[in-house]
Design goal:
Blueprint: E1 14-18, E2 21-25, H1 27-39, H2 43-69, E3 77-81, E4 84-88, H3 96-124, H4 131-149, H5 158-166, H6 171-195, H7 199-224, H8 227-239, H9 243-249, H10 261-274, H11 278-288, H12 297-306, H13 310-320, H14 327-340, H15 344-348, H16 353-365, H17 369-381, H18 386-398, H19 402-414, H20 420-425, H21 438-448
Helix pairs in contact: 1-2, 2-3, 2-4, 3-4, 3-5, 5-6, 6-7, 8-9, 8-10, 9-10, 10-11, 12-13, 12-14, 14-16, 16-17, 16-18, 17-18, 18-19, 19-21
Length: about 450
């Protein structure tokens, strides 16, 4: 549903792991579902049954998403809040087919569960009107009806996610087109719901429509403000080892457009750290960020370490590395450690997924190609990002392993990598182009260009 997602890292009233996936059931979900049960007129006993049925059913639905997202390293987590279940994952540039599969897996799992309950209901055949009878009926209704409703072509429902994955164009164009389609479809469904005497359903659908209208407005606003693209270019320059270019393109403190100040300050600190100006980087973070702004603890540790505050840096790292540090923060930490000649394996050797990808990019930028290739292999095993696989191919090629580079390039292609012209021009891949099988991999990458990629399932 189009509701604000829980804050990153927030824990629910009930927190547990199911089939290896973290699940958080938030108080808002329990309250809203219980109120719906009470409004049905069955009394507190039915409300309790409805609460249990709805919770189990939504978790079954979300597990469908999670089970399909997990094999490509999506690191899915499940949250139940408000009226909705939410499965978040890290698809990177996962292929269109994978994103469609993740979106359809939820309704499929829910309807399969509902059909199983229906067979059980017929086998048990409880006395009509009893609590057990009502519980069975509620379970069938929630799983089958909600599964079908979820297939409507309306974001953020699963049907809308499928449309988003299949929509032609780049990411922004796909989202804009799908939001327009979603708003129109929601308006039609709301009118039909009112006509059928279902005003509550109509109001819910209209609420979803307003979420899509807000998305359209946000995209229009972003189109009128190109400053975000400027910051993206600065971040790319830092990652490419050109921090002086990033500093030249970034505005001075106090000159950033409204709302962009914290992002500019963070990028300036990253560039200054790369230029071995740790004191200036620390001053930017202390003076350029609004009071209360949370700095990523992994990057904060890198700045502290560069300023000789080792004890405090280790405390920050002990905290941050127990979670899932973001790729960019690990990349900057590794770049610092590589410049200082420190043993990063002892400190960061346990990282997987996005953290391992950060190791790959940091070491590649430092010219440590063999080490980068080793970490790239781990990132591929525990992730599913085609850009990671492509950078691993470049690292292997530069370290003298042309055959391994072709293997990694093949993985990137199968994950949806679609920049064929870049592959043709990339000097790092020169040793790979004459190998048997390169033409087939390049053709697959060219074919992917017609597929593109879509936003992560929500």
């Amino acid at each position: 549903m189009a509701l604000p997602a829980p804050a990153a890292g927030s824990r629910g009233l009930l927190s547990f792991r199911l089939l290896g996936f973290p699940v958080d059931v938030h108080a808002s979900f329990l309250v809203v579902v219980a109120l719906f049960g009470l409004s049905a007129g069955g009394g507190p006993s039915f409300a309790l049954v409805w609460l249990v049925v709805a919770t189990v059913s939504v978790i079954a639905h979300e597990l469908g998403h999670a089970l399909v997202a997990a094999p490509v390293g999506g690191e899915p987590r499940i949250d139940l809040y408000g009226l909705a279940g939410l499965t978040t994952w890290r698809p990177g540039r996962a292929s269109r087919a994978r994103r469609v599969a993740v979106s359809l897996a939820g309704p499929a799992a829910g309807m399969a569960f509902g059909i199983a309950v229906l067979f059980a209901y017929r086998a048990v055949h409880p006395e009509p009107g009893t609590l057990l009878d009502n519980g069975f009926r509620a379970a069938v209704f929630v799983n089958v009806f909600w599964g079908l409703l979820n297939l409507l072509p309306i974001l953020p429902l699963d049907g809308g996610q499928v449309v988003l994955a299949l929509m032609p164009g780049d990411d922004r164009v796909r989202l804009r087109r799908t939001a327009y389609l979603s708003a129109g479809a929601a308006a039609v469904v709301a009118v039909l719901a009112f006509a059928a005497g279902q005003p509550i359903a109509a109001v819910i659908v209209l609420y979803i429509a307003m979420g899509n209208v807000q998305t359209i407005r946000s995209l229009r606003s972003a189109q009128r403000d190109p400053f975000g693209d400027r910051l993206n270019a600065a971040e790319a320059a830092i990652a490419d080892g050109r921090p002086e270019d990033a500093l030249r393109d970034l505005p001075e403190r106090g000159h950033a457009p409204a709302g962009w100040g914290p992002a500019v300050a963070l990028l300036r600190a990253m560039a200054l750290l790369r230029l071995d100006r740790p004191r200036d980087a620390q001053d930017v973070l202390l003076e350029g960020l609004p009071e209360g702004t949370r700095i990523d603890p992994t990057f904060e540790a890198a700045v502290l370490l560069a300023n000789g505050q080792d004890r405090l840096a280790r405390e920050r790292l002990d905290m941050s590395l127990k979670a899932r540090p973001p790729l960019w923060a690990v990349r900057e930490l590794v770049a610092l450690l590589a410049r200082r000649g420190e043993d990063f394996d002892a400190l960061l050797g346990h990282l997987t997924g996005e953290g391992a990808a950060g190791m790959l990019y940091g070491l590649y930028g430092a010219g440590r190609y063999a080490d980068a290739a080793r970490w790239g292999a781990r990132a591929i095993e525990t992730g599913g990002d085609p850009d990671v696989a492509y950078t691993t191919a470049r690292a292997r090629a530069r370290s003298g392993d042309a055959s391994g580079a072709l293997d990694a390039l093949d993985v990137a292609a199968r994950l949806g990598f679609d920049r064929a012209d870049e592959v043709r021009r990339d000097a790092a891949l020169a040793p790979v182009r004459d190998l048997p099988g390169f033409a087939e991999v390049l053709q697959l990458i060219a074919d992917n260009a017609g597929l593109g990629a879509s936003a992560p399932h929500r």
